[in-house]
């Protein structure tokens, strides 16, 4: 692994400082009641610097967007030999559930997003982008055309399952059941 240079570390620290300031302010007062300048001031950067790191006010709350997409694609591309795509995605979502949903601020963050139309719309757009990237990775992996409906469907169902999984007290069992359904189908599940 290559060590980051001082300049790259500084950029990452600045980006994290902006994201942390935005999260703190938005959770305390609500998304609509906080301006971008206030976030920049709290992070001790200019508004121009803030927008160099984040393309919009909504993006401030979804600072792990590109990492999330990369992790989804990697779950497919880097899975162990013999592991199915649904199994790899199940494992990915179980890990994400442990990492995000168990965070003490996750519930507050989720309520903020759900109660703010602009954030819900941004999240939907983000998930659609992730869905397309995941569908392409699945299609490449199985040798299907990039617009294969089965690959698109699996990507959509996998991403939509996240909300169902995160909303259950036993997330691992929910993931096992949902991704088992994706792997084996409804008819096979009903015969068991």
Summarize the structure.
This protein is mainly alpha-helical and 192 residues long. Helices cover 74% and strands 0% of the residues.
Would you kindly provide a written description of the structure presented here, covering whatever features stand out?
The chain folds into 2 domains: 6-56, Arc Repressor Mutant, subunit A, CATH 1.10.10.60; 65-191, Orthogonal Bundle (Tetracycline Repressor, domain 2). The chain is mainly α and 192 residues long. 74% of the residues lie in helices and 0% in strands.
Radius of gyration: 19 Å
Distance between the termini: 46 Å
Write out the CATH superfamily name of the largest domain: Tetracycline Repressor, domain 2
Return the average pLDDT rounded to an integer: 90
Question: Unreliable stretches, pLDDT < 50, 5 or more residues?
Answer: none
Residue share in β-strands: under 5%
Largest sheet: none
Determine and state the CATH class of the largest domain.
Mainly Alpha
Count of helical segments? 10
Q: Which percent bin holds the helix content?
A: over 70%
Structural class, by secondary structure, is mainly alpha
Global outline:
globular
Number of domains: 2
